[in-house]
Design goal:
It contains no helices and 13 strands. It has strands at residues 7-14, 28-35, 43-51, 54-55, 59-62, 67-74, 80-81, 84-86, 94-97, 101-102, 105-112, 118-123, 131-136. A hairpin with a 7-residue loop joins strand 8 (84-86) and strand 9 (94-97). The radius of gyration is 20 Å and the shape is elongated. The protein has two domains: 1-36, no CATH class; 43-136, Immunoglobulin-like (Sandwich), CATH 2.60.40. The structure holds copper (II) ion (CU). Copper (II) ion (CU) is lined by residues 81, 124, 126-127, 130.
């Protein structure tokens, strides 16, 4: 499994007949798993999509220093987009620049958020009018 949220999960299997009724005697097993992050538990997942030349959000918020998993869904057929994070709209410092994908396509970016809380900036590098605040808190 990918993109499993942090926390406790139960995984269960049960043996059944072809019609999905349980075999008798019952045969099943359950395991409890805890999905954690690193020692600080600082994992976060965000999703963003692009459609009709616009992102579906103008704000992305992540914890400071988090290991970010960003699922990006480009729904614009034949149009290349990415998501890139900079220090500010002046883009004097690049924090992360995601690979450009041509829609319809979904991709997963992973990067580390700045350790310093504040309001940063994200945009599509191909279409900088697609942008918003990348908030680190
Ligand atoms: Cu774009």
């Amino acid at each position: 499994w990918e993109n499993v949220t942090a926390g406790e999960h139960n995984l269960s299997v049960q043996l059944t007949n072809n019609d999905h009724t349980p075999v008798v005697p019952l045969a099943f097993e359950t395991v409890n798993v805890t999905v954690g992050g690193n020692a600080t538990g600082n994992e976060t997942a965000v999703t963003i999509s692009a459609q009709d030349m616009a992102f579906d959000t103008d704000t992305i918020t992540v914890p400071a220093g988090a290991n970010v998993t960003m699922t990006f869904d480009n729904r614009d057929a034949g149009v290349p987009h990415n998501v890139a994070v900079y220090d500010s709209p002046l883009r004097s410092e690049e924090i992360f620049a995601g690979e450009v994908v041509t829609g319809p396509a979904e991709t997963t970016y992973t990067f580390t958020a700045p350790s310093e809380p504040g309001t940063y900036y994200f945009q599509c590098d191909i279409h900088p009018s697609m942008n918003g605040d990348f908030i680190v808190e």
